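Q: I'm teaching a short session on how sequence maps to structure, and I want students to see two examples side by side rather than one. Could you give me a first protein with its sequence written out and its structure tokens following it? Keep the formatting plain so it prints cleanly on a handout.
A: Of course. Example one:
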Amino acid sequence: MTVLGGKTRMPLTYVGAELLRHLPTMGGLVVGGLISSSRPESWPGTAVWIVIAPLLAFRVAEPFYRRRTFSFALSDSGVLVESGLLAVRLRELRWSSVTAINTHSPWAFAQFGLVEVDLLQAGEEETHVTIPAVTTEQADAFFAEWQRHRDTPADLTPEPTTLTSGDTLVYRASVLDLVIASAINGHLIAGGAAVALSTFDALDTVGLARDALSLGRIAFVFAIATSIALIAAGAVLTTIIRFGGFTVWATPEGATVLRYGLFSHRSRRVDAAAILGVTVKRNPMEVLLGRTRLAIVTSDSSQHLGTNLLLPSLPTAVVARVRATAFPGFEDSEGAGAGRQTAARMASVAALTAVPPVLLGFVLVGAYEWPLLPALGAAAALAALIVLASRLVGRRYTLHPGPRTIGVTTRHLTTRTDTIRLSAVHVVDDRRIAGRLTLSRINIYAGGPRTFRLLGCGAADIRAILGPPDAPDHLPNDPPAQKGTDR
């Protein structure tokens, strides 16, 4: 099979991999059809095959059709992708416009030695081109040709099929780390609460809620508790399956390689020079436990950060070590402020956020005799307004004169710090009422538009920090960091 030059179809093993990948779905359809057919007296009976048969036929035929109508070719200029049977679509991506190449090997693909390759030009979905399946040798050919012919710095590159001996292991997540990350992200609470509420609602609907909660029906309570425990275990298992084997490697060239996934293997290679920003997040539980989440902002990042690297909730010291090793040049601007986020402070913020809406709800219902739902809506609106205002008032920026970056820290119950290269800042503006400054905005573009709003910080101050448009990316290390505060 030709790797470079002529058109290449996906390997024939792609058909087997796709059928294996969707085997559980097809098996479920067949089992459902057989169960329905065995009970012809109940609806829909054997008529269910009118729906199931076409679905099964489509699922079996789809990989054959896709392989027949999809081809690609590599050249010195870029990648040519041809798809379609009657309406043929040709897309050519030049190496210079490809900003990222991600690789993904689902569990079924791994059995056949196949890899899915995603070529990205920007953060929008329309700029992505996905080649459903190539061999590991072809994936390496994509990587090698891009590295050889591109004339712009790389943003993200796929991990080669093997790590070199010079790569250094920075961090390996343990099972305990993943369990804690699952709990901190709310999977246990959300899953268990959903089961408890739905179970109680079902019992209440059939009039068994009172009996279920009585001492004489302790079996019902035990069943609910068991269901909650199973859901919690399922949430933990899902996290372990998704992030199992999570490792961070540093290459001699300064790049960072990440691997994770027990069955569906994912890998990314991040070049430090191409990172536009780093985002650090901490919720109240993470503050108390000393843990942190970290994401990066790159030129292929969409606004919702869906394509970004995201480390699961890890000890703050580990994240700091990974950040210093893998992402040098981005100052740790939230370090000191994060230490002041104590339990007492968070309790005070929570009280100041919750008490006014609760009092408003009681006043509207008790004094003004509002219906319950409108009163709840008014209380929720007041709570949202308080949260938005608190985040805006509590937002600060910090200039780092080394690598030209600006850190924007937003602190409420949660703490979030975005450290962004000044080269990603496109527009700064302000809003004034009656000649008085009210609101300033920093607009950046990193795969998609994002805006940081600062209360009482003049656009002139921000422009002074940014410097002239032709300012270099790096400033001297001598001047101390300048800090801005809301006025």
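Q: Perfect. Now a second example for contrast.
A: Example two:
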Amino acid sequence: MNTNKIIGIVLIIVSLFLGYTGINKISESSVSVKLLDLNIDVSDKSGKEEGYIYLGLAVILFGGGIYIVKKGK
């Protein structure tokens, strides 16, 4: 295997981890409570922003990993 392919595969794996972490941060940052027919939504804005940053980095790393793997062929 070529060194570029290994780096590309590592970037893809890291991007999948970052994407999973980002989705978890976004989903954990908002909570809904129903109390006596009253729906209360509480959200952590900074947690959502951090989750979106992780997702953005995941997309960039995934694209870079795919590019490097394809370029090595």
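Q: What should students look for in example two?
A: Point them to this: The chain is about 75% helix and 15% strand. Also worth mentioning: The chain has a mean pLDDT of 87.
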